[in-house]
Design goal:
6 helices, two-stranded antiparallel ribbon, about 70% helix, mainly alpha, about 0% strand
Length: about 230
Amino acid sequence: MEVRKPKPVHSWGDLIGEIGVIVLGVLIALAAEQAVELVHWNHQLIETRKALREEINTGAGHAYSHRAIYDCNAKALRKLREELLKSGPAWKARPSAYEALLFTWDTSAWRTAQASGTLGHMTPTELNGYASAYQFPPLFEAQEAKDQDDAAQLDLLAYDLNLGDGMRGRMLEAVNRAERQNWLLALGTKQFLESAAAVGVTLSDTDKKKIDAQIGAPDTDCSVRAKAE
């Protein structure tokens, strides 16, 4: 087997030429690697945006439900307060139109995007838009939990009660807290829907009609309806 020795460099021009070939090869390899990485992150961004928007769209449905039921809940709580103040010690059981909604505010797509590093490849404007929307779900979960506690206490008014020994005061306090939560949820969900729209997520008219049929639109007669699932 014949081994061919490399040709000796006879001039600086030859040396520069050979170095140029090596540098060019390295640059081509680096460019190819960057191109593959760019394609990878572009694909990741497309999938991440889709997952985030689907998750925010689900949250937008929950938010719209709180907005839709706000007026009816406000009226129900005002009426409940008036009845508590007018009632004597013997409270006669009566149903209330007040409904404390409870939803699952999923943020798994957001957490996955954070862990994968995909968010770092978004523009600052886009990233801030998603971050703005995702600041709300934990707040809503906490507010809904408080609302459930007050609703559980107010549910006792569906039975005959003795309003003595501080019971009337505790019920009025629960009404006041429920009014506060009802207002906070209406305000917060309005801001959430605005943040969702900023990243291109808005509920369709079909989705709104489905929620209106289940929850009741703000201009309805506020009759008792089935609770949202």
